[in-house]
Design goal:
The structure is a homodimer of 136-residue chains. With 136 residues, chain A is mainly alpha-helical. Chain A is elongated. Chain A has 2 domains: 1-72, Orthogonal Bundle (Multidrug-efflux Transporter Regulator, Chain: A, Domain 2); 78-136. In chain A, strand 2 and strand 3 form a beta hairpin. A 3-stranded antiparallel β-sheet of chain A has the order 1-3-2. Chain A has 5 helices and 3 strands, in the order βααββααα. Chain A has helices at 5-12, 16-24, 42-56, 61-72, 78-126; strands at 2-3, 31-32, 38-41. In chain A, 68% of the residues lie in helices and 6% in strands. The relative contact order of chain A is 0.08. At the A-B interface, helix 3 and helix 5 of A face helix 3 and helix 5 of B. Chain A binds a DNA duplex (30 and 30 nucleotides) through residues 4-6, 15-18, 20-21, 25, 35-38, 55, 60-62. Chains A, B: Residues 2-70 form the HTH merR-type domain. Chains A, B: It holds the Pfam family MerR_1. Chains A, B: Residues 82-109 form a coiled coil.
Amino acid sequence: MNYSIGDFSAITGISIYTLRYYEKESLIIPARKENGRRSYAESDIAWIQFIKRLKDTGMPIREIQKYAKLRAQGVTTMADRMEMLARHRAVLKEEIGKLEEHLSNLDDKITYYRTEIRKCTNLREDRRTAEVSCCT
Amino acid sequence: MNYSIGDFSAITGISIYTLRYYEKESLIIPARKENGRRSYAESDIAWIQFIKRLKDTGMPIREIQKYAKLRAQGVTTMADRMEMLARHRAVLKEEIGKLEEHLSNLDDKITYYRTEIRKCTNLREDRRTAEVSCCT
DNA sequence: GTACAATCTAGAGTAAACTCTAGGTCAAGT
DNA sequence: ACTTGACCTAGAGTTTACTCTAGATTGTAC
């Protein structure tokens, strides 16, 4: 099976513009029909989804480009590609760690806000003061 | 204690350009001395670090701007700010989840590469074939 | 046989978040 | 007095990753 750019866009959820852009950047280069139109292969679906994954994990297009270039060179570059992925894995792992730390910090802040707001509310309910500026 | 923009930049690791940009965007507005120069307060350090955290967790500057505006309005906006953070927390939590899924996928791929490469090596060592194109 | 829908290319435009330049002020050291 | 270094503003330039426009072509439906 092979797909026109419109179909491929619909299947993958990536705009036609972006697909053409990715081609210009040598990420994914579909075959062409006799009339010059793009013809994406079945296997391109998995490939573009992998590209998506790399992007979603923060890999810049220049990096993905390098990976794509290796891939295009065939099996002899498998080790290099694995190397790239292993490196990227480490970066990703670290980023997740950072985000988790940020999350816990955010939780602390939210907890703090919650208690402060409760204090305010209590004060108002107790009528001990009419001022709103109770929590600073 | 208060700091010149140069000192504040050195302390926080944020470039002078960026600090001025953040001011233009109303994220952090330092006091001014009589001569018109910026004078950052001690408390601005914690504030900019919090801004950094929001940025690192993917909050766009427009959002941070809203938060800063609320903060500038004082204690009466605490509940709104908490609301914002709670929402952002949820987004962050989800993003971490996605990244973890991506990580595990990446691991699978790396494992696959590793075994494929091993197969190749074994084949070569066994002299069963001289071809390199063993793993596709 | 003509309208239309989808495609093509080259190149311009956009948005976000900086980053830098030019031209000017001002206080401190020599 | 004068140079130097840090600071000021307004506005231009950069980078990344798209996104869109204009003008041409092509295959299909009526």
